[in-house]
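Postdoc handover notes: sequence design on the structure in folder B. Input tokens:
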């Protein structure tokens, strides 16, 4: 069966590894790649639940436990009608190396169901969560596999699933992250992916400008309007940047006439999302909603942050961003750019050197969310809670270490030409893969 998303993620990793000096210096790592490309375990199950009319409904549930060399499997649960094994394998594969880049002891996995929460009552969603966790609970645990939320799975759904796990297993343990603050959740967890993305890009800006520039005065396009996009927008605004777009699955909301999104606008969008309403409800005199559009070709910006879903920046859109003078693009979503887009950004980086656009992949730039999930696991294990300031400082430190790791690894394995920005995509891939492969070798997974 064809698995286009997984094949795309695999080829993207392999192409950068092959174009680096990694296999030349360590030819045995080719065997590690062969082993690491296959999940340790794929669990598929049916989820039977009852709608409000008393009718039996059935969905497909999944958990892909990809790699546990560095720690318990860690990765989100996605409830969306497009969920299938290809998407979950791609997400799990990316998660393995993303988690490695955080420096925390976490393996990689991903799961979910082809359940569509849209149009369902709260009671129906609760019943689905109970049915889903009744089966999943057999395969997870605080030291085995620790899922989190993803698309369609908010803290509310995490709560229902946690309660089901606790009742079935008769254990209170940190088996899920993204929990409520009063029962084991970490402060800064909802903000972490968006904040971490902005912290990562801030290091890119500082490096590219020799420390002379920051987000202050920069114009930023953001796609998406969920958790990641909202908190990325709020952090950009806090750091002095101007946000000129957000979007949803049906179109893009663009700020016009020199206007921009304020924190109040972002909060209004957050309220709409809770009510599962469209961004068209926010169309005001200073915003224009473009149905069926993504923001990249409709605004002139310094920074682009795709924060919605996979493959949301095409090759043509990448070229449009380059031609409009954008200087930085970093993925808040997983595999937000198509391979054609990545190729365009990387070609421009080599051609224009210090005057080029600079691309950062999601496995590095959006690692802040899972990093704070790892910090939540640590707090649960120690039965303590850290303050917002403590968690935010740890997040900043993790994102700086992640950026430095990508940068130095790129310099070591893909020597940049004079005046050229190091390839962050290659640096992230080599650094993440090397760490996982070395742990696998030590544990006898390959030899």
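Designed sequence:
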């Amino acid at each position: 069966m064809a698995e286009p998303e997984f094949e795309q993620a695999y080829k993207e990793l392999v192409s950068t590894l092959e174009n680096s000096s990694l296999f030349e210096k360590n030819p045995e790592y080719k065997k590690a790649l062969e082993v690491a490309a296959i999940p340790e375990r794929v669990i598929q199950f049916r989820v039977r639940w009852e709608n409000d009319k008393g009718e039996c409904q059935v969905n497909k549930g999944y958990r892909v436990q990809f790699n546990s060399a560095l720690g318990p499997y860690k990765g989100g649960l996605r409830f969306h009608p497009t969920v299938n094994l290809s998407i979950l394998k791609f997400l799990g594969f990316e998660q393995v190396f993303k988690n490695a880049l955080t420096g925390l002891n976490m393996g990689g996995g991903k799961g979910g169901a082809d359940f569509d929460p849209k149009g369902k009552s709260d009671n129906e969603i609760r019943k689905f969560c109970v049915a889903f966790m009744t089966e999943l609970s057999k395969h997870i645990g605080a030291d085995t596999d620790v899922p989190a939320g993803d698309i369609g799975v908010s803290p509310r759904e995490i709560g229902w699933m946690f309660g089901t796990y606790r009742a079935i297993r008769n254990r209170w343990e940190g088996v899920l992250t993204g929990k409520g603050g009063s029962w084991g959740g970490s402060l800064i967890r909802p903000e972490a992916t968006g904040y971490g993305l902005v912290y990562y890009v801030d290091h890119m800006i500082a490096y590219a400008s020799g420390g002379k520039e920051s987000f202050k005065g920069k114009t930023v396009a953001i796609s998406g309007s969920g958790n990641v996009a909202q908190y990325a927008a709020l952090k950009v605004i806090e750091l002095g940047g101007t946000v000129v777009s957000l979007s949803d699955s049906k179109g893009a909301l663009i700020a016009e006439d020199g206007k921009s999104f304020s924190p109040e606008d972002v909060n209004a969008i957050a309220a709409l999302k809770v009510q599962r309403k469209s961004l068209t409800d926010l169309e005001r005199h200073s915003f224009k909603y473009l149905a069926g559009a993504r923001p990249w070709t409709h605004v002139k910006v310094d920074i682009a942050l795709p924060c919605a879903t996979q493959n949301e920046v095409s090759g043509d859109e990448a070229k449009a961003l380059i031609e409009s003078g954008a200087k930085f693009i970093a993925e808040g979503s997983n595999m937000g750019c198509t391979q054609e887009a990545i190729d365009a950004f990387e070609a421009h980086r080599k051609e224009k050197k210090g005057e080029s656009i600079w691309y950062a992949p999601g496995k590095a730039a959006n690692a802040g969310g899972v990093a704070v999930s790892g910090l939540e696991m640590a707090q649960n294990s120690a039965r303590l809670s850290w303050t917002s300031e403590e968690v935010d400082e740890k997040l900043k430190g993790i994102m700086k270490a992640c950026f430095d790791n990508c940068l130095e690894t790129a310099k070591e394995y893909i020597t940049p030409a004079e005046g050229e920005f190091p390839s962050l995509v290659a640096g992230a891939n080599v650094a993440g893969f090397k760490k996982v492969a070395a742990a696998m070798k030590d544990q006898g997974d390959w030899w």
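Context for whoever picks this up: Residues 388-413 form the longest helix (26 residues). Don't rerun without checking with the PI first.
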